[in-house]
Each structure stands twice: as structure tokens, then as C-alpha cells.
Amino acid sequence: MVQQTDKRDGAGQVEVRTRRWSVSLVWIVPILAILIGASLVVRNWMQQGPVIAISFHTGEGLVAHKTQVKYRSVVIGEVTTVDLADDKKSVVAKVQLSNDARAFATQGARFWVVRPRIGVGGVSGVDTLLSGSFIGADSGESKVPEKSFVGLELPPPITYDEKGKRFVLTASDLGSLDIGSSIYYRKIPVGEVVSFALQGDGKGVEIGVFVQAPYDSFVTADTRFWNASGVDMQIGANGLKIDTESLSSILVGGLAFGSPDFAPQAEAAADQAHFQLFADRDTALAPPSGQAQYLQLRFDQAMRGLSVGAPVEFKGVEFGRVTSVQLDYDATRQTFPVVVEAVIYPQRLGPVHRKMLSVFKHSEGDMDGARRLIGTFVEHGLRAQARSGNLITGQMFISLDFYPDAPKVAFDKTADPIIIPTLPGSLEQLQEQLQRVVERISKLPLESIASNLDGSLRELRASLKQFNGQTLPEVKVALDEVHKTLRTANSAISEDSPQRERMGETLDELERMSRSLRDLADYLGRHPESLIRGRPKAATAAELEP
Q: Which of 39, 400, 488, 534 has CB 3.0 to 4.6 Å from 314, enough for a Cys bridge?
């Protein structure tokens, strides 16, 4: 009974089944679209690089979502916004870099706007006339991240990856140099000027240069740099000499470097090494000047044309220069002499300087010995003279030479600087000679000479008048008579004239007579006795028989 009851209870329960959740096919397309969109967003986010801000002086040529950032003509970013800076003195361009351009978001990176420009190296940025301006980029050495940059107004002359070395040149002024001016080695362009700045004390400039590899190895500790701008023109005994590095250096300036022949072989100079910039090639490659000696010269003549820097020569060899030209007052003679101070470098005389030191047993740098040596030379006629170096420009120079006939002058061994006696210049001597000639001419009796000359001219005029009035007509008559005579002679010797026929007969007779005389001379040569005995009779036939 119990079992039946249980069966009835179980049969009366209702079985509840749970329905499984299922996705309809309608939702597959939206889900796939969401997944694809999300993947694109993630991919785009992963491909994007950092965002940097670049400030420029002006926003010319910068357009948001259009202006690109390029490195070696490859796009590495794009300008997203261009806004005015808070100080209203510049503009700030926000740039979205690509993921591959993260190296450009570091310290030392440089950015500039590429526009059409005409510079030292020629015309650049011409392609931007069609495509529009873009921002050029150059990475730096640092790995430290950076978000804000100050853009350059001009493209940098060299980029980070260029091989070579930088050097610093010091000069008194910049001259005609500019950023981009070429540097030449043996007339081959090997680098350029990359920067220049005024020194801290304002007494000179520092010029940054870059020499490309492998030419940078030719820059050693003994290398000399000089200004190669313009044309170096010299007129000497061999004619006109013109020297220049290139046409570009004439127009925009340039530098050159080299090592003097006397310099030993040295190792390559280190990066950022300092050098002095010389004015020209001859000065740069000149041998060492050695110990300097200062001289003082006093001239009683005007020194117009003698300027500071004028050469000082000994026997035609330049070995110094003029340092000052000043006027002085001599109270004793009440005159105004011109005091010229100069510096000389005896070592520039070459082997003769060393020979003199050996002969007089002086050591290099012995100033007292040098003073005694100059005193000895003065006693033997050493004098200074101002000479004209160029008749066209009137420039003068100082010449030291020996004049044995010069008046004796006491040498002051204690004077500092050393005083060397002087002589009047060649031009001054010429003026004195001309003055003496003028004085002699002025002493001549010019009035009496002029009076006598005037009388002679009057007599000559009267003689010419008489000649024209009397002699010329007679000469004309005589010439007419000569003309008539020549005409008569011409008619007498014409072809058909009887005189010519008789002359021909006469010539024939003369020819026969000369032949007879020749026969007579031959006979007398064979029979000289005929002159005494006479001509023998002709032999008979019987006498001729044997």
C-alpha cells in the first residue's frame, strides 16, 4: 500500500527544465565590427609616437594636419595644431611623431622649417614651391626624452650623422665669412663654416668650422688656417700673379688650411681643437718670426704714404713692419721730426742670421749682444731710409742698408728702443736734385737769351720772305728748263728717231774697234818684238816648203 502511494505522489509532480542562453545570428555583425574597430584603434595607438611642441618665430608655411615633418625626405610626423605662444612672441606647433621617430623626441634634436632659400650653397627648397613647406628634423646624440623644442630659423649646415670633426678658429673679425662658407684643402672643398660668435671680452670672434671625413685627418696641431676670400693679386719681377681658391670664395668668402713645409709630421688634431685664423696664405705659412727687436727712426722729411703695417726691408728682404708713425717736436732745432717705430725679426733673414750669430759669437735671444751688433753695423754705415714702394698709390716702406759715405753718427747703446740713424728718402733726394736743377735754370740769363732768340727769329722770317719772293721763282724757271731738256732727250732716243739709228751705228763701230784692239793686244802679246821690228812680211809658198 505504501509503495502505491509513493508512485502516485511522484506521478503528480511537474518537471521544470532550464532553457540555455543562445546568441542570435543578428548580433554577429555588430560584434565583429566592434572588435575590428577596437583593433584598429589599438593598432593606431601603438603606431603613434610621442607628441612634441616646437616653437618658431613665425608660423609662416605651417598648416595643421597638412604640414609634415620629414627626415631625409621620409615623413616621420605631422603638425596637429599651430597656436600662438603665451608670451605672444612666437608660435607653438604641436607635432605628432610616428612610432619609428621616437629618437627625435630627445634632447639635442633640431627642427626647422624648409622654405625656398638662396644661400651660399645655392638655391634650396625649390620642391616646396609645389608641395608646400615642411619641417626638417635632425636627431641628436642624447637619449634623454624631451617634449619641447625651439625651432631653428635656418637649416643647420651639417646634420648629426655626418662624419668629420669640428674646430674653433679665433680671429679679430669675421670678414666676409658666413655660415656655409666653404673650407678648401689644396683647392678642394672639404668642409664649411657652421657657426660664429663674438668672444666674451668682445675683442674677437670665434668661428666654428666642420671638416668632413676623411679630410679631417689632414688637420694636425701644426695646421694653419687662413682667409681665402677674394683675390690675392701680386705684382712682382715675374709679372702679375693672381691667386684664388675658387669663384665661390670670391663671391661669398671661404677658408683654406694647410701645413708649412718646415712643420714636422704630427698626429691629427682632436675634435673642438682651437686654431688661429690668419689673414692670408703667406702669413699663415711663414716660418717662425723668432725674437722681436724694436727700432726707432727719426726723419726730418714728411712721411706721407708711410702707414702702420708698412714693410721693413734689409737688402730687399722683408723682415719687419712699421708699428707707429708719430709727429715729434725738437726744441733745440725747433723742428717737427717724424718718429717711426718698427719691429723687426732677424730670424726671418734665414741662414744669414745664424751665420752672423756664429761669427760674432752671440746666442739666440741675447738682446745685449744684438744691440752691440746693431751698433757695429751703424758704425759701418747702416742707415734707414724711407722709399717709395708704388709710384701710383704713393705707398712707402722702410729700407735698411749700408751707406759707407754716410756721415758718422754716435750710436746710443742705452736707448730703448734701438735708435738707427736715417737718410733722406729716394723721393726726397729726387726732389732736392730737381730743386737744384730749377735753381740753376733760374740763374740763366733767360731775358737776354729770349731777346737774342727773338732777333734770330726775325732775321729768319726776313730770309724766308726773301726766299719766297725771289729765289723760289728762279728755282721754278730752272726746273722748267730741266723739264724741257729731259723732254728733248726723251724725243731724241725714241724708237723711230734718226739720232737713235746713228747712235746704233756708232755703237757698232765702237764694237768693231774694240774687237780690233783686242786682236792687236793678242798679237803683241805673242810677238812683242813687233813693236820694234814691225809686222813681218807674209811668207811665200817656197819658203814654206820643207
A: 400
pLDDT digits (tens, 9 = 90+) for 97-116: 988 888 899 998 999 998 87
DSSP per residue, 197-208 = EE-TTSS-EEEE
Cα dihedral value 518, 523, 525, 529, nearest 10? -140
Nearest to 295 by CA among 349, 336, 340, 330: 340
Residues in the chain: 546
Surface-to-core class of residue 62, CB atoms within 10 Å of its CB (0-12 exposed, 13-18 middle, 19+ buried):
buried
Task: Report DSSP letters for 6-42, one per residue.
Answer: HHHHHHTPPPP-PPPP---GGGHHHHHHHHHHHHHHH
Mean pLDDT score, 397-424: 88
Quote the pLDDT of residue 435.
Answer: 78
Closest CA to 155 of 209, 126, 114, 191: 114
Q: Over 80: is that where the pLDDT of 234 sits?
A: no
CB 225 within 8 A of CB 277: yes
To the nearest 10°, the Cα dihedral for 310, 312, 317, 318? -50
User: In whole angstroms, how large is the CA radius of gyration of the chain?
Assistant: 55
Residues in contact with 522: Cβ distance below 8 Å, sequence separation at least 6, in sequence order: none
* Residue 239, pLDDT above cutoff 60: no
329-370: per-residue pLDDT in tens? 988 888 899 999 999 988 888 788 788 878 877 777 677 777
Asked whether 135 and 104 are in contact (CB, 8 A), the reply is: no
Residue identified by cell 730703448 is: 416
pLDDT band at 140 (very low <50, low <70, confident <90, very high): confident
Distance, CA of 500 to CA of 502 (rounded, Å): 5
Helix (H/G/I), strand (E/B), else coil: 42: helix
* Rounded Cα gap, residues 147 and 136, in angstroms: 17
Assigned C-alpha cell, 73: 625626405
Do 179 and 193 form a contact (C-beta atoms < 8 A)? yes
CA distance 450 to 447: 5
- Number of helical H runs and strand E runs in the chain: 13, 26
- Beta strands 273-278 and 164-171 are parallel
Q: How far apart are CA 69 and CA 51, in angstroms?
A: 12
3-state secondary structure 214-230: CHHHHCECCCEEEECCC
Q: What number of other Cβ atoms are within 10 A of residue 54's Cβ?
A: 25
Residue 127 CA: distances (Å) to CA of 59, 92, 130, 302, 523: 19, 25, 6, 64, 119
Beta bridge pairs of residue 194: none
Q: Which residue has the higher pLDDT, 128 or 460?
A: 460
d(CA 262, CA 286): 9
* 25 pLDDT above the threshold of 70: no
Residue 539 has pLDDT above 50, yes or no: no
Domain residue ranges of the chain, discontinuous segments joined by +? 47-150, 164-284, 293-436
Per DSSP, what are the bridge partners of residue 56?
91
